[in-house]
Amino acid sequence: MDITFETEAGRFNYRVCAVLLDGERILAMHDERSPYFYLPGGRVKMGERAEDAVLREVREELGVEANIVRPVWLNQGFFEEDVTGERFHELCIYYLVDVSGTDLLSRGETFLWQEGKRTHTYTWLPFERLEEEYFYPKFLKKKIFSLPDTLTIQAEYE
Predict the structure, then answer these.
(1) Which of 45, 54, 134, 158 could form a cystine bridge with 16, CB 3.0-4.6 A?
(2) Cα within 13 Å of Cα(75), Cβ side
(3) pTM > 0.85: yes or no
């Protein structure tokens, strides 16, 4: 069971995201439902460690086995989802993840991956392009240029 629930004030989510880098580029995705780019990841399941969840999500969404380098952010996000209009209070742990031992870079600058019935489109976005892209979370548009060495806790209101 995913750790998510609805309240009168909105939805709570406990999520993880993978920060996948190639030099000065970050791997971002979108699908047929979402017009904006976001990072690979998903909800943590009840009884699942966040570290296991992010590796599971990378496996499910990209078909590769990855390694965690380190956690970089615990973001407390307060936002309204652009497509559905639903209000969210979300805790998301962002992990720097290494995929150097995989075929991920050979798939091209943009590639498709099927996860169940959903087709994901992935693009290696240059850091300097993030500011002009329809991309979430917004804090990454600036903070990607200097990743913290230790886990940093922050809040983002969109």
Answers:
(1) 54
(2) 22
(3) yes
